[in-house]
Amino acid sequence: MAKYLVLIRLEEHVQNAQELASFWGELHAKLEEDFGTEVEHSYAVLGDVDFVMIFDAPDRNTAAQAALAIGSYGLDTQTMELIPIEDFADLVTDS
Q1: CA-CA distances (angstroms) from residue 23 to 2, 29, 36, 84, 92?
Q2: Distance (Å, rounded) from C-alpha 73 to C-alpha 64?
Q3: Contact 14, 77 (CB under 8 A)
Q4: Is the pLDDT reported for residue 94 higher than 80?
Q5: DSSP state of 95
Q6: What's 46's DSSP letter?
Q7: Strand partners, 42
Q8: CATH-assigned architecture of domain 2-94
Q9: pTM reported for the whole predicted model
Q10: Each residue of 24-81: pLDDT tens digit?
């Protein structure tokens, strides 16, 4: 499975921390049950984004579907595929 990082920004209408907490667990369950992803970590961030999530997905299409599902909760997302540094080093060496 490939690893993905999602940068998450709250939309204006999701400003209540209790509202966010109420659907965060639901969101994790949905990603795992509906898309077969494995959510590894979620963090609140002090900075330009509000949260980050790291998950494993079987392929890019599944990762894209999962990212769209996150967006359906009123969250602005940017999703990136992560490459382990060892694999990246192999790619650079093979070039």
Answers
A1: 25, 10, 19, 30, 41
A2: 15
A3: no
A4: no
A5: -
A6: S
A7: 53
A8: 2-Layer Sandwich (3.30)
A9: 0.84
A10: 888 999 999 999 999 999 998 999 998 999 999 999 999 999 999 999 888 899 999 9
Handedness of CA 58, 63, 69, 75 (dihedral sign): positive
* Calpha distance 38→20 (Å, rounded): 20
Quick one: pLDDT band at residue 7, thresholds 50, 70, 90? very high
Who's near 79: CB < 8 A, 6+ residues apart?
4, 5, 6, 7, 63, 64, 67
Other beta carbons within 10 angstroms of residue 22's beta carbon come to: 10
Output 85 or 24, whichever has higher pLDDT.
Answer: 85
